[in-house]
Design a protein that fits this description.
Strand content: 15-25%
Helix content: 25-40%
Order of helices and strands: EHHEHEHEEH
Number of strands: 5
Largest sheet: 5 strands, parallel
Number of domains: 1
CATH topology: Rossmann fold
Bound molecules: 1,3,4-trihydroxy-5-OXO-cyclohexanecarboxylic acid
Structural class: alpha/beta
Amino acid sequence: MKKILFILGPNLNMVGIRHKEVYGTQTAESINEEVKAQAEQLGLELEIYQSNHEGDIIDKIHSAYGNKDGIMINAGALTHYSYALRDAIEAVRIPTVETHMSNVYAREQFRHESVISPVCAGSIAGFGKTSYYLGLCALLKILEK
Ligand code: DQA
């Protein structure tokens, strides 16, 4: 069974409470449960990790080295400026899929740039929680090869 690490960055624990017009009303915990069940159906072993701290997320990515087959990440706002996060993803060389619930390109200008995209296999944005299901499907395809 392929092992996937799903990382959720800053403020993503507040989904269901924050900015409901953008992220919906379903709680982060309940979305996580759904994603876990979907991963199981796809035959993937999923670990979910959420942190509001850049350094902790980087440590978690490092700990995936040699232990995980793929990473799915919604880095939240770190997406747009964290070169440290970018370098961590590049360092471990684990296939990584970038995901976003919202369509970042339809929002503020600062969300249009992702500094992690160049070191990710691809990115999925704009489908709400379904972005995560699509991200898992993408990882499955990548890891089948
Ligand atoms: C987000 C988009 C980011 O711009 C934002 O900072 C988030 C969530 C998304 O899932 O749409 O925290 O990554």
